[in-house]
Amino acid sequence: MEEESDRLITAGTPIFRRTTLALFAAGFSTFAVLYGVQPLMPVFADQFHVSPAESSLSLSLPCAMLALALLVVSPLSEVWGRKPIMVASLFASAILTLIAVIVPSWHGFLALRALTGLAASGLPAVAMAYLSEEMDGRAIGLSMGLLIGGNAMGGMVGRLLAGIITDHASWRIGLGTIGVLALFAAILFWRGLPPSRRFLANRMRWRQVPGTFGQHFRDPGLPWLFAEAFLLMGGFVSVYNYVGFRLLDPPYNLSQTAIGAIFVVYLAGTFSSAATGEIASRFGRRKVLWLAILLGLAGILMTLSERLPLIIAGIVVVTVSFFGAHSVASSWIGRRALRDRAQASSIYLCMYYLGSSVLGTAGGWFFAHSGWAGVVAFFGGLYGVALGIALHLSRLPPLVPATSPDLDR
């Protein structure tokens, strides 16, 4: 008879609610400290006398550091355990955010932001691996969606608070407030997340690490899902990086508070990630992913309008599209990777954050040379390729291992 401690977590149980609440708080913290600077980029450009593309380094640099560190942190979690790595990550990133707000120089601030990205790397891939190991197959779509919903809520609250407080006090107080909230979220996570029940520690042999990563590139589906992460996140973050510059200028002349308020649309991402994850679990990821991406292409075309309500509506549609597609693709990783799931998750998220870093900054070149139409064209090109990949994945034969018949639909 199966021991209680070995059972998978099923939806609707008290331990399911406890686990998803803790991981929601963790996703909130990570995205708040990473993306709270996004509406402040015009302020950085003005106060530190840098270009829009240079101001985007406040986000691109920590995302790049996070992406690269993921490739080291996930193997460490196979040795040290999932929860200890995640707890250390959340506390360190919150504390570094608080230190960054007192550094006077631009380069010093960027250095602290880079360290924050390094610290934050302990959460994303490890959380995905934790869910893949601990959750019942029918609960993983919902639980992954709720984790991503926490990301969306953290991104929204971080951006909104930063924008409002910057208007009424200073960007340093705004970002410091986010650091305090992240510290409280870390405490909630530490006290609330159940220890791993199905994790088995491995003795790490570093010379074997390249092989554990390389095996995932031999799968016919996983490399395409990694590419989706790069393209989808790169296009999405470019929209949010530069829409503030557009709306601060005539004919809109919005305040920093109003720019921050636009990020309330992240609520749509919170709901769409959980809802899309549940829909994909019922009807299959192949049928949902390409539709979510197509929705994003429709949304970005709406932002070409000169009417502010249509611009905001387009951003809402883009947000729903992105979080829905990300929820589907990220849960698919855990279903196709039958071994070394933390490494598979870390590759996916490495590409995700590299997309945010590399493509998010590259979008600044399009904005500088062609204005908002350039950003729309850039986004359209990225999502067009992503749509083609999703259609290819829809025709991919599923894995049907005897031990997990519900995998990879």
UniProtKB/TrEMBL annotation:
It is a multi-pass membrane protein. The chain crosses the membrane at residues 21-37, 57-73, 85-104, 110-132, 144-165, 171-190, 222-243, 255-276, 288-304, 310-334, 346-366, 372-393. Residues 15-398 form the Major facilitator superfamily (MFS) profile domain. It comes from the Bacteria. The keyword Protein transport does not apply. CDD domains: MFS_NepI_like. Keywords: Cell membrane, Membrane, Transmembrane, Transmembrane helix, Transport. Belongs to the major facilitator superfamily. This is MFS transporter.
